[in-house]
Design brief:
The structure holds two protein chains of two kinds.
Chain A: E1 5-16, E2 53-54, H1 55-67, E3 71-72, E4 75-76, E5 79-82, E6 92-95, E7 102-111, E8 114-127, E9 131-133, H2 137-140, E10 144-148, E11 155-161, H3 168-185, E12 197-207, E13 217-222, H4 225-244, E14 253-257, E15 262-265, E16 278-279, E17 286-287, H5 290-298, H6 304-315, H7 319-326, H8 329-342, H9 345-367, H10 378-389, H11 395-408, H12 412-419, H13 427-440, H14 442-449, H15 454-466, H16 473-488
Helix pairs in contact in A: 3-4, 6-7, 8-9, 8-10, 10-11, 13-15, 13-16, 14-15, 15-16
Chain B: H1 5-14, H2 21-41, E1 62-63, H3 73-77, E2 83-84, E3 87-91
Antiparallel strand pairs in B: 2-3
Classes of the chains: A alpha+beta, B alpha+beta.
Bound molecules: zinc ion.
C-alpha cells in the first residue's frame, strides 16, 4: 500500500434559519430564554395537534438554495424520520427525505491551488430538536438528564455536500464561505456560539491516486470550525494507521472529544440508523412555480463573491484585500459606509481599506471579538481620517487613537483632546525641541558635519520620541535641518 | 409475501413496543396478510400514474412568521413524569 494517503470529506451542515417563530408553530425562536418557556402543544408533540409550515422558513430555505447555486425542486414534501431520543418529544423529526427542496448546488472556495468547487448534493428543511441541559453541578453526577424543548421546532436547513473536500483546511474554507454566504443572503445569523450552525463530518481515507471511496465514519455535531479541522485531522490519521495495520474501518458514528482531541466510537447499534421514513401526512406538499422561484431569486441580496468583484472594479482593491473585507458582512458593510462618508472615491476607499484590513482586523483578532461587539462605527474611522488629513494628528498617533476608539467608542476628536495628542505644528516649539535633541546627540551632529544627511533622519526620530509621536514629521525634518545648518554651518541634502 | 418473525421483532424493538408472545404471533400473521395484499396491488400497471405522495388535495398550506404566546413553563411540564429546575427530567442520556 502506498505510504501517502488522501482525505475524503463530506459535510452535513445544520443551520438555524432566522425566523421569529418556529417552523410548524408560533412559538418564539429567541435564544437564551428560561428553559421550556417557548413551547406549545405542537412543538411538544401532543396528540391531535397539526403542524403548519412557516412561510418565511420556506422562503429562507429557497433563498439559501439559490445563493448556493442549487436547483429548486418545484415539488417537495416532508417526511417523518423516526427515532427515540428525549429531546424529540414526537418520536420522529419532521424532515425531507426523497424530495428535498434544493439540489445540485456548489460553493466555490479558494485553495492554495486556486478556486475549487465543492458540490452541494441537497438542502432540505427540517425541525431542530431540543437541548440536553446540564443543571447545577450538584445534579450533574445524578442519574438523570434534563431537557429544554425551547429549541425543539426551530427551523433548520441541512446542507449536504458531495464528498469533494480533500483536507481539513478545505473543510474550514468551505464552512467559512458557506457561513458568509448564508449571512449575506440574510437567511441565518449563523452564530456559532449559540449553536446556530453545526456540522456532521463524514471522513474516509484512500491511497493517493485511488478514486475508490473508502469506508467512512461520521463525526457528529461539531460546533466550531476548529473542532471540525481537529476532528478530521485526527480521524483521517486514525483510519490510515488502522489500514496500515491491516485492520478494516468500521462504518460507524464517532464522537469528537474536544479536550483530548480524539474521536471515540459511539458503538451505535445499526438499528439506530433505521429511520423508517414515511411521508408526513399532516403537511401537504410544497408546489412552486417558476415565477415564485424567480421572485425570490430577484430579491437575493448581493453575495460575497459579487461584492468582492465590485470592490475590485469600483475601488481598484486587490483580490486579496477585497477578499479579506467581504469575508465578514458586518466588516464589509462598515467599510462601505465609511467609504461613502469619507467621500474621496477610490483613493479614499484604499485608505479606508488599509485601516480595515490592517488595524481593525489586527485588533479584532487580538481581542478575539467581532466588529459588532465593539462600539466602533464608520463615523469613528472617518472622523479620525479627517484629523489625519487636516494635519491635526500624525499617522502614527492615529493608530493609537483608532485602538482607543475601538476600546471606548469615544470619537477621535474627544480622544485627541483628552490625551493632548494634537500634532505639534508650531515651528518655534519644534525648534526648541530640535535644539535639545542636537545637544543630546553630539555623535549625530558629528556625522552631519561629515556630510551624512541620514543623521537628520535619526534626529527627527529623536524629536518624535521626545514629543511622543506628536511632532509633525515633515515640519520636524525641515526644522532639524535648519537648526543643524545653523549650529554646524554645514548643509546636507 | 410473508414477513419473518425476526423482522417483526426488529420492528417492534424500533418502535419500543413490548409485545407478548401471543401478540407477536398474531402480528406476524396480520402483517404478512397486509404485505400479501400489497402484492395484489403491485400487479396494477402504474407506469403512467404519478406517485401519490400525499392523499389530500392540498398544497402550500402556510402560516405567516408571527410569534404567538407559548405555554407557561409550569403548563409545559405539567404532564411530565418527572421535572426539575424547569426541565423535563429523563433517564441519563449516555450517547452523544
Ligand atoms: Zn410551539
Amino acid at each position: 500500500m502506498s505510504r501517502e494517503y488522501e482525505i475524503v470529506v463530506g459535510l452535513e451542515v445544520h443551520v438555524e434559519l432566522a425566523t421569529k417563530s418556529k417552523i410548524f408553530c408560533g412559538c418564539s425562536t429567541a435564544f437564551g430564554a428560561e428553559p421550556n418557556t417557548q413551547t406549545c402543544p405542537v412543538c411538544l408533540g401532543m396528540p391531535g395537534t397539526l403542524p403548519v409550515l412557516n412561510q418565511q422558513a420556506l422562503e429562507y430555505a429557497i433563498r439559501a438554495g439559490l445563493a448556493l447555486n442549487c436547483t429548486i425542486n418545484k415539488y417537495s414534501k416532508f417526511d417523518r424520520k423516526q427515532y427515540f431520543y428525549p429531546d424529540l418529544p414526537k418520536g420522529y423529526q419532521i424532515s425531507q427525505h426523497d424530495l428535498p427542496l434544493c439540489e445540485h448546488g456548489y460553493v466555490e472556495i479558494d485553495t492554495p491551488e486556486g478556486p475549487r468547487r465543492i458540490g452541494i448534493r441537497r438542502i432540505h428543511l427540517e425541525e431542530d430538536a431540543g437541548k440536553n441541559i446540564h443543571a447545577g453541578d450538584n445534579i450533574a453526577s445524578a442519574q438523570a438528564s434534563y431537557i429544554d424543548l425551547n429549541r425543539c421546532g426551530v427551523p433548520l436547513i441541512e446542507i449536504v455536500t458531495e464528498p469533494d473536500i480533500r483536507s481539513p483546511e478545505e473543510a474550514r474554507a468551505f464552512l467559512e464561505k458557506l457561513r458568509s454566504i448564508l449571512i449575506y443572503a440574510g437567511v441565518s445569523e449563523a452564530k456559532l456560539q449559540e449553536g446556530q450552525m453545526r456540522a456532521d463530518v463524514n471522513v474516509s481515507v484512500r491511497p493517493k491516486g485511488s478514486t475508490a471511496l473508502g469506508t467512512r465514519t461520521e463525526l457528529k455535531n461539531l460546533g466550531s470550525f476548529r473542532s471540525v479541522v481537529r476532528a478530521i485531522e485526527y480521524e483521517a490519521r486514525r483510519q490510515w494507521e488502522a489500514l496500515q495495520r491491516g485492520e478494516e474501518i468500521v462504518q460507524e458514528t464517532r464522537a469528537f472529544d474536544e479536550e483530548r482531541g480524539i474521536t471515540l466510537s459511539l458503538r451505535s447499534k445499526e438499528e439506530a440508523h433505521d429511520y423508517r421514513y414515511f411521508p408526513e401526512p399532516d403537511l401537504p406538499p410544497i408546489v412552486l412555480t417558476d415565477a415564485e422561484i424567480e421572485r425570490i431569486r430577484a430579491q437575493l441580496p448581493e453575495l460575497p463573491d459579487a461584492r468582492k468583484r465590485r470592490y475590485m472594479e469600483a475601488y481598484g482593491l486587490s483580490a486579496y484585500d477585497a477578499g479579506v473585507i467581504v469575508r465578514d458582512k458586518a466588516v464589509a458593510d462598515f467599510f462601505e459606509a465609511a467609504v461613502a462618508a469619507y467621500g474621496k472615491g477610490a483613493e479614499g476607499a484604499k485608505t479606508v481599506a488599509n485601516w480595515v484590513i490592517n488595524e481593525l482586523a489586527r485588533i479584532l483578532n487580538e481581542k478575539n471579538a467581532e466588529l459588532a461587539q465593539t462600539p466602533l462605527t464608520p463615523d469613528h474611522l472617518v472622523g479620525m481620517l479627517k484629523l489625519v488629513d487636516a494635519g491635526t494628528i500624525s499617522g502614527k498617533i492615529a493608530k493609537d487613537v483608532f485602538a482607543e476608539m475601538v476600546e471606548t467608542g469615544k470619537s477621535a476628536e474627544e480622544i485627541v483632546k483628552e490625551k493632548g495628542l494634537v500634532q505639534l505644528t508650531d515651528e518655534a516649539a519644534l525648534a526648541e525641541i530640535a535644539l535639545q535633541v542636537i545637544e543630546a546627540n553630539p555623535k549625530a551632529v558629528e556625522d552631519w558635519k561629515k556630510g551624512k544627511a541620514t543623521a537628520a533622519q535619526f534626529l527627527v526620530g529623536q524629536m518624535m520620541k521626545a514629543t511622543r509621536g506628536r511632532a509633525n514629521p515633515q515640519l520636524a525634518n525641515k526644522v532639524i535641518r535648519a537648526k543643524l545648518a545653523e549650529v554646524t554651518g554645514v548643509t546636507n541634502e | 409475501m410473508a414477513i419473518s418473525r425476526a423482522e417483526v421483532e426488529h420492528i417492534a424493538r424500533l418502535a419500543r413496543l413490548g409485545l407478548s408472545e401471543e401478540e407477536m404471533e398474531a402480528l406476524t400473521e396480520q402483517l404478512g396478510r397486509i404485505l400479501a395484499h400489497m402484492e395484489v396491488l403491485r400487479q396494477v400497471d402504474t407506469r403512467d400514474v404519478p406517485p401519490t405522495y400525499h392523499v389530500l388535495p392540498l398544497q402550500n398550506v402556510l402560516r405567516t412568521d408571527t410569534v404567538q404566546e407559548s405555554l407557561s413553563q409550569e403548563a409545559a411540564l405539567r404532564n411530565a413524569p418527572q421535572a426539575e429546575a424547569g426541565a423535563f427530567k429523563v433517564p441519563k442520556i449516555t450517547e452523544g
